[in-house]
Amino acid sequence: MKIKMLIPTILALAISVGAQPASEKITPKEYREANDVARRFWSRLLDTKDFKPLLREFFVENIIERHRKNKEGYSRDFLSPDEMKFVNSDEQKQLFTAGNTWVFLGYWYINSVAPPKCVDGDDLLKCFPKDVQKILYEDPVLAKSLMEDSGSPVSYEPTTRESTSEYVSKALQIFNKTNVILRKHAIRKNAGRDRRWRTLMKEASKYVDYYQPSVTTPETPDYGYPKGTRFISVNTPIFQLELIRSRGRLKIIDLQIYSQ
After folding, report:
1. How many angstroms from the chain centroid is the CA of residue 185?
2. Is 168 helix (H, G, I), strand (E, B) or coil?
3. I need a labelling partner for 123 at 20 to 30 A (CA). Which of 133, 145, 187, 231 fits?
4. Sign of the dihedral through C-alpha 71, 77, 79, 83
5. With 80 as the cut, is the pLDDT of residue 75 above it?
6. Which carries the bigger pLDDT value, residue 14 or residue 35?
C-alpha cells in the first residue's frame, strides 16, 4: 500500500483526511481516555522529538509481533509484507522508531522552516538543510522513495533476503543520520510550538477533527486480534493513532499518515 510521507503542506495533509466515519458509537469513558492518550502522546513527542522513548509509555507491549500479524499487511514499519519475512524484530523496531521520528521531524521542518516556495518545487529533498541534503543525495532514489512509499523502492525489487538487507541498512543510515541534524533544528526552534506551525495548525483544524476519537470494529481479524475487537482512531497533528485496550488501558497499536 502506497503512502505519501512528506506531502508539501500540513494543510494539504489536513484536507486529505476529511471526516472519519465510525461504525459504532464511542462511550464517554473511551472518548475521554482516547483523547487524553492522544494529547499526551503529541505533547511527549514534542518534548522528546523521538519515538523510541515513547514506545514503552504509549504503545502495546508486543507491537512488532502484532504488526507481523496484521492481515492487511500494512503498518508504519517502512516494510512491505514480503520484506517482513527477511527482517528480524529488532530491525523492524528500529525502522518503526527511527522512521516515524524522521516523518515527524521532516513534516515539521518542511512546514515550519523551509521556504514556502520550496514546497511547490519538483524536488522536496531541496527543502531540507544543506547538511541533510548531502546525506539524502548520497542515494536520492531511496530517499525519495522513503518520502513516498511504505516499502522499499522499485530499484530494490524483486524482494530477496539480500535486497531487503541492503534496503534496511541504507534506510536506517538515512533515518539515523538525518534525525540527529533535524532534531537540533527542532530543539532550537521549539518544534511544534513555534509560531509558523501553530498558524498552520489553526488553519488545518478547519478540516480535521483533532482529538475527537471514533470507534471502528473490523469485520476480519486485524493484528492477530479476534473479530469484533474495538479499535479507536484519533487524529493528532501529522499522525492518526489506532488505539486498542491492552491490560485495561488504551495503547497505540499503530499509526498512519493522513494522506494514505
Report:
1. 19
2. helix
3. 187
4. negative
5. no
6. 35
